[in-house]
Design brief:
With 852 residues, this protein is an alpha+beta fold. The chain contains 16 helices and 41 strands. The strands form eight sheets. The protein has an eight-stranded antiparallel beta barrel. Strands 12, 13, 14, 15, 16 and 17 form a six-stranded mixed beta sheet that branches. Strands 21, 22, 23, 24, 25 and 28 form a six-stranded antiparallel beta sheet that branches. Strand 12 and strand 13 form a beta hairpin.
Length: 852
């Protein structure tokens, strides 16, 4: 047996009680042995003594250093850094109050966050030689630093110095912003978070904001008219016109949803922004702003967003998030604490916004000037920025799609959106793609508007070529004339939208001096209506039906809303199941699946699908469960999975048996139904079960139920009779009940359970089904039954954090936590004997009053 790998998180766990602290307890991440790039966080922690903690990603964990006086950007100031226990990677986004009685009790904010690049070798090599050279790219700390081990001669492995190296980011001593880059709070405010939330809600009430819902699912952002406003109007506010993607962010409780201007959900595209919005000091709020990426000079650049906007698969999103940092610049607050601010004057809305969004990190309230726009416009021209937005200071928020003169954009240059209808071959390195052929709509017709080649750098070229080849068709879908061409022309379906900057129109209706700026993944082709003077200008707000393709399945009605509260659609459900199919299908293989259809979403009717519907494809496999004509389904391919989901099936329930042997199972289930108990009680019972399973030689795989409860699946190997697995489930449940009589019950009669967690041991048997891992549930929030590591089974666990938006990214980052589930072959007889011995030693007896 190979030696056990050292666990750098062992000291971290020894110091903390998972039942008493909200800190994360995730397992050690799988990492390369040589770390050269990673992430970092600096926490400010008001524990026994106020101090800072620098945490660097090294080898699948965060190497942590306590810095009593905090980091400095002055090369002449060397700061003591005490090496403490390693922390899990999930600590990168931790911010909260550690309760009294726990190690490190007190409030802790994420003071800075960003990327780290190790210099002069790997991080591990630097640790070994006692000098870690690295470069930080954070919101507050930037440039070269070094950690130098100073305690080696004294046999002290904890004493290090943090030193800032001279570079353009170095500066003389100055007070650094004390606020979090997530919530915008300082440590004192975080400690009194409920007080701050209440104060802000009271201020909204004092502004006259009524208790009324602003529904982000139907709201369309307020739009600007173009030009025609003075740059020196005392009644107006002047802001930078941002070069990013318009985003409306809604927070309700712990659920955050990001939407593009057209209403399409994009939470999964910008997960770090969603997590930051969740930390704001508000129970509920609705924000309007733009997500931007900055160039090396600190200017917002739409083209920098290109990798983020073009990322679709979870692995692409994960990679793009690491490579392209973004920030959400918020310029309006539409609701707070259930009060609508739409009728409140803009100046008052922005004053309240500045108190809700207080940080300068992932979220920032956009600054403005009052009455003096000329200086801002001149600055934009000098720095080649987009321009200025002039807003009437006393204006209400007027939802789109109609434009209002209350907001006017004054551009330094002009940019518009166009549909790509083809491409022209180039020369040399750009032979494959020399220019894009552009068009826009006039009514229902697409009209050619010219070509664009400038601005197509290598990144854009490599991203666009595969997309264009997928869209190639034989004939041009647009009318008109491209003008002079130099290379062969290829035609494309009009599905790809790009943004182009240009100085005007030629006399024959083509773009003058166009420059490609980026792909617009947030706009439908029908929104492209730019035309020469006199041409038709439309701004439709509806998103046309998306077209999804499967090898053998026609997917329909993708736009139908299945979760009204969040606005999630059937198309997003289909996309979710396609994304998790690689980890879901191995669990479903040859396993009977019970389907419940929700053809109109979770608020409509629902019913079991007991036989293939009329017109079902011949390749869709089913199996009979009994003597009647009811049949259940075998989901053995992506096509089969998408077929049943396209029927409106949301959750997938599975049996513990295989189709070839319906009387035997390969796992049993314990269901922790919180009922009248508490989540803390459920966590306590889960941890107790973990210990009990270890004692008997069995392995449990925890998962959320997708609702409020928790499950543990215990593999037993193939062809174990249900009489055996059901008995094992029953015995484990009763053991927990005896060990924890005040918080656990196996009583099936609801009225007799009292304020205890119900241990449902009856989910194992020939006709007993359990919701499948990675299955979406038909509940508000589109929660997912998500596999967990045991290190995550703590009070910090939030089952609501796992939904159809977040789980694909989690799978891409962590892989399948059920991998190896069916490869286990435990000694079932030995486990039963061990359980019997434990029961005997604890004087185990059947509880009185059981109704079985």
């Amino acid at each position: 047996m190979p030696p056990r790998r050292p666990d750098p998180l062992e000291r971290y766990r020894e110091k903390r009680d998972p039942a008493g602290t909200p800190e994360p307890f995730a397992a050690l991440a799988v990492a390369e042995r040589s770390t050269r790039l990673g992430r970092f966080v600096v926490h400010r922690h008001a524990a026994t003594r106020d101090h800072y903690d620098l945490r660097l990603e090294i080898g699948g964990a965060l190497k942590s250093f306590a810095i009593p006086r905090g980091p400095s950007l002055d090369p002449d100031e060397k700061r003591l850094a005490v090496n403490t226990e390693d922390h899990p990677l999930e600590y990168l986004e931790f911010e909260g109050v550690i309760p009294e009685g726990n190690y490190g009790a007190g409030p802790m904010i994420a003071w800075d966050l960003g990327r780290v690049r190790y210099l002069e070798g790997s991080a591990e090599e630097g640790v070994a030689k006692g000098k870690i050279d690295f470069e930080l790219s954070g919101f507050k700390l930037a440039g070269r630093f070094a950690l130098v081990h100073t305690g080696a001669r004294r046999g002290d492995d904890k004493q290090w110095l943090l030193i800032k190296k001279p570079d353009p980011h170095a500066r003389s001593p100055s007070e650094l912003d004390p606020r979090s880059v997530l919530s915008g709070l300082d440590v004192g405010e975080l400690a009194e978070l409920p007080v701050w939330v209440r104060r802000l809600e009271e201020e909204a009430a004092e502004l006259g904001a009524p208790m009324a819902e602003v529904d982000p699912r139907v709201l369309r952002p307020m739009l600007c008219s173009i030009d025609g406003a003075s740059l020196d109007d005392a009644s107006r506010l002047y802001e930078l016109k941002l070069d990013g993607a318009r985003i409306v962010a809604s927070k309700r409780g712990g659920v955050v949803v990001l939407r593009y201007r057209n209403g399409r959900i994009c939470t999964q595209t910008f997960p770090e922004i969603a997590r930051a919005v969740a930390k704001l000091p508000a129970e509920s709020c609705l924000l309007d702003g733009e997500v931007v990426a900055f160039d090396d000079a600190g200017r917002p650049r739409f083209q920098r967003l290109l990798p983020r906007l073009m990322s679709a698969r979870p692995d692409e999103i994960l990679r793009a998030s690491a490579e392209v940092p973004v920030a959400y610049l918020v310029f309006d607050l539409l609701s707070l604490g259930g009060r609508s601010l739409l009728a409140v004057p803009l100046r008052a809305r922005k004053a309240l916004l500045a108190k809700v969004v207080r940080g300068r990190g992932l979220l920032r309230a956009l600054d403005h000037l009052e009455g003096h726009g000329r200086a801002l416009f001149d600055f934009c021209q000098q720095e080649r920025l987009e321009g200025v937005v002039s807003k009437r200071a006393d204006s209400p928020y007027r939802a789109g799609p109609r434009r209002s003169s209350d907001w006017v954009k004054i551009k330094c240059e002009r940019d518009e959106d166009f549909v790509v209808v083809g491409w022209e071959e180039g020369r040399g390195a750009r032979q494959t793609l020399g220019a894009l052929c552009l068009a826009s709509f006039e009514g229902d017709d697409l009209v050619l508007r010219g070509k664009v080649g400038s601005g197509l750098d290598r990144v854009a070229h490599d991203a666009l070529v595969p997309r264009l080849r997928e869209l190639e068709v034989a004939e041009c879908p647009a009318r008109g004339d491209l003008g002079r061409t130099r290379g062969a022309i290829h035609h494309a379906r009009p599905e790809l939208v790009v943004n182009v900057r240009f100085v005007g129109w030629s006399d024959d209706g083509r773009l003058r001096e166009p420059v490609f700026r980026g792909v617009r993944g947030d706009l439908p082709p029908s929104a492209c209506t730019a035309a020469p003077p006199g041409g038709q200008r439309l701004d439709p707000a509806t998103l046309p039906e998306s077209i999804a393709r499967s090898n053998r399945v026609a997917l329909t009605h993708r736009e139908k809303v299945f979760w009204p509260e969040q606005g999630y659609t059937k198309g997003e459900l289909l996309d979710y199941y396609a994304a998790v199919a690689p980890v879901l299908l191995p669990f479903l293989a040859e396993r009977p699946v019970l389907l419940v259809r929700y053809p109109d979403g979770i608020v409509g009717k629902s019913f079991y699908q007991w036989r293939p519907p009329e017109g079902a494809p011949s390749w869709l496999r089913t199996v009979a469960l009994g003597d009647d004509d009811k049949r259940v389904f075998l989901i053995d391919s992506v096509d089969a999975l998408l077929y049943v989901v396209n029927l409106g099936c949301i959750p997938l329930h599975v049996l513990a048996s295989r189709a070839s042997d319906l009387d035997s199972g390969d796992f049993f289930t314990l269901d922790f139904d919180i009922g009248g108990g508490t989540f803390r009680d459920a966590i306590t019972l889960m941890r107790s079960l973990f210990d009990l399973l270890e004692q008997t030689g069995l392995t449990g795989f925890p998962k959320t139920s997708g609702q409020t409860g928790l499950h543990v699946l215990v593999p037993v190997g193939p062809h174990v009779p249900f009489a055996v697995t059901a008995t094992l489930a029953e015995l484990f449940g009763r053991m927990l009940e005896v060990r924890h009589p005040k918080i656990a019950t196996t009583e099936r009669a609801v009225e007799r359970r009292g304020p205890r967690v119900y241990l449902d041991t009856g989910q194992t048997g020939r006709s007993r089904a359990i919701v499948a891992p990675y299955s979406v549930r038909a509940v508000a929030g589109a929660r997912v039954s998500t596999p967990l590591s045991w290190d995550e089974v703590t009070l910090a666990l939030d089952p609501g954090a796992f939904d159809l938006v977040t789980v694909p990214g989690r799978v891409a980052a962590r892989g399948d936590l059920l991998a190896g589930f069916f490869g286990l072959r435990p000694d079932v007889a030995g486990a039963a004997a061990a359980l019997e011995a434990i029961a005997h030693s604890e004087s185990f007896a059947r509880p009185h009053g059981s109704n079985r």
